[in-house]
Design goal:
globular, 3-stranded antiparallel sheet, 14 strands, 12 helices, binds pyridoxal-5'-phosphate, alpha/beta
């Protein structure tokens, strides 16, 4: 709190509280270094970043994407006048299954939009080889993957044509609300800067159809403070992750997600999969809830199965994603969570599954 108050003090002198202010520019520079990417455009939130990408690229037709994600991914495609085509995920890390992409490509396909689910990196080599072959754009929804990088390899923001992060309060790194679009393409970066500010290029010049997607100075100030504490928070979550694994590894009927060996993670989610069908998962959810432990069925329902899309996509075939959605439960994990709480949560889980 003290660091934040110190950071925002000068805003009362300068009175520059939004519109590409100095704190937004400082945070963009800091993130370019931290993420190892040439251009970072900050947005008011991750969702507007996704819509900003589609608007800036001027895509048409179909986008191959995954239903195992937060609804924002699918909304961004639909609201941009594009048609989502749902590809199944692979069963180990719940990211898009590259072996199922080619069968979905048509004359209308213009892009692939995979998601780094829970910070698990997609098989970017395989995905980008397909994109190259068919001349498609690759847009990563990297909302879960802030700070994730390949061991000895590129940072997550180096993958594909462009990556979009969310800095919502619930994410690994936050600016209260916020988002960032990262790319090495300077033409795209220029269009992103325009689109987030109504397409205004000069006092009397509007050059593209834009919207208001700007980040304000109070959000950027929060980001500058949180970036300093990011590694420390990550280490705290890593320790909680380790305890969860130790205690749950041997619990029958509970499957953990393997750690991705090739990547440095951010430990911002701890999903478990409850075997034996959705009733068992729901029973565990209710048992924890009645003991004051709030878990999330993240991701359930799948985005292809929600009320507003299910009629259009009732034929969507993605059995691996369907099964995961029926069995997943994301357990609490955040820097302020105590080791003792994790132990208690694991005891409650064991109690329920042994009943
Ligand atoms: C959080 C999230 C978003 C949306 O980000 P906001 O900053 O909340 O708008 C998009 N996609 C995924 C996968 C997310 O988890």
């Amino acid at each position: 709190m003290e660091a934040y108050i110190e950071e925002i003090k000068d805003l009362w002198d300068t009175k520059m509280i939004t519109n590409n202010g100095t704190k937004v520019r400082r945070l963009e520079n800091a993130l370019q270094d931290f993420l190892g990417v040439e251009h970072v455009a900050l947005f008011s939130n991750g969702h507007m970043g996704l819509e900003g990408v589609f608007g800036s690229l001027g895509l048409q037709g179909e986008v191959i994407t995954t239903p195992y994600t937060f609804i924002s991914t699918t909304h961004a495609i639909v609201r941009s006048g594009l048609k989502p085509v749902f590809c199944d995920v692979e069963p180990e890390y719940m990211t898009m299954d590259p072996s199922k992409i080619e069968a979905l490509i048509t004359e209308q396909t213009s892009a692939i939009m995979p998601v780094h689910v829970y910070g698990n990196l997609c098989d970017s080599q395989a995905i980008e080889a397909i994109a190259h072959k068919y001349d498609l754009k690759v847009i990563y929804d990297a909302a879960h993957a802030f700070g994730v990088s390949c061991h000895n390899g590129p940072s997550v923001s180096q993958m594909g044509d462009v990556s979009v992060f969310s800095f919502h309060a619930t994410k690994a790194f936050n600016t209260i609300e916020g988002g960032a679009v990262c790319t090495n393409d300077s033409k795209l970066a220029r269009r992103l800067n325009l689109i987030r500010n109504f397409g205004i290029a000069g006092k009397e010049s509007v050059v593209m159809e834009g919207f208001n997607g700007k980040m304000n100075e109070f959000q950027a100030a929060m980001g500058l403070c949180n970036l300093i504490g990011y590694e420390g928070e990550c280490r705290l979550r890593e320790a909680l992750d380790r305890t969860y694994r130790q205690l749950l590894e041997t619990v029958p009927g509970i499957r953990l997600m393997n750690r991705q060996k090739s990547a440095k993670g951010n430990y911002s989610y701890f999903p478990v999969f409850v075997e034996g069908g959705s009733e068992r998962r729901d029973r565990l959810f209710n048992h924890l809830e009645s003991n004051g432990i709030h878990t999330r069925k993240y991701f359930y329902p799948l985005t292809s199965r929600v009320e507003c899309y299910k009629n259009d996509y009732s034929h969507a075939h993605h059995p691996v994603a369907d099964k995961a959605a029926e069995s997943v439960l994301a357990l609490p994990i955040y820097a302020g969570l105590e080791q003792d709480d994790v132990i208690r949560i694991c005891q409650l889980i064991e109690q329920e599954v042994k009943r």
